[in-house]
User: What shape does this take?
Amino acid sequence: MRGARPYRVLWLQSGGCGGCSMSLLNAEQPDLYTLLSAHGVELVWHPSLSESCGDDFLRLLADLESGREPFDALCLEGSVMRGPNGSGRFHQLAGSGRSMMEVIAGLAGRARHVLAIGSCAAFGGVTAAGGNLAEACGLQYEGEVAGGLLGAGWRSRGGLPVINVAGCPTHPAWVTDTLAQLARDELPEERLDALGRPRDYTDHLVHHGCPRNEYYEYKASAERPSDLGCMMENLGCLGTQARADCNIRPWNGGGSCLRGGYACINCTAPGFEEPGHAFAETPKIAGIPIGLPTDMPKAWFVALASLSKAATPRRLKVNAVADHVRVTPGASAPGRGKKGRS
Assistant: This one.
């Protein structure tokens, strides 16, 4: 546990949309500021939440860079813009004449911990899509390849690699939980996965807790976006592969992509932004989805899927391709053949 001084966090934004900050503001029970205060975390500066700007911010930045003003964590939201030709001049810090790339690298060397907030800061994300003319990258990854701005072997002063709180956007609790653990010195490297993501949320699959799991079990598949059935077979859902706990601790108390009728696009993973096909489309070979559940051999999946489809209750077959429940669970004892209402 740290001493009386708060755990001080500097939050910067680079090549991104600001969606992770917007998501962070949805922290609830308690709200963001109460939560940070409870864990001894202080925001030194945030581009949307702090009053200081212009010359005041540049003076603060100079103090942070020189060490006159202490801080513990650097949080970067958005990818690092290295273009054109590695100069970083596509993104300069206003009023300074310096590239943001240079500023980020310098501050990373000062911070005890460095966090990439969102998949853009972690892997390059959406900013790196479409040929990547901006030469965007993550802090320690470029896509799934280690390197990025800081280099594959880089470690912070606290001994950790960049902590990739990946997601597009991130769940507010993924960010606040990580900061709280760092403030208490309770995030060892073994609690990060192979891509530097906190295992508190990546030890789970989006599939866990999915409200459509009964349809998945019987391979009762949706055919249109408004259908109630499982979206894996036809509509591009990657929830059985995506590492996140979105359906275990839903967003804003009750929401997730799948609960809202949208297929999971695996936004916590590098390269999610360019799957090579439409997001709401499942590529297949000989009728078999290419992206199968994590840890399941293809032959097993085909065999289980065939058995499941053969055993699918009428209720699920009908409801899977409907936009509302048409057949309710039967009240009769099993085997009596009584049908629900349509």
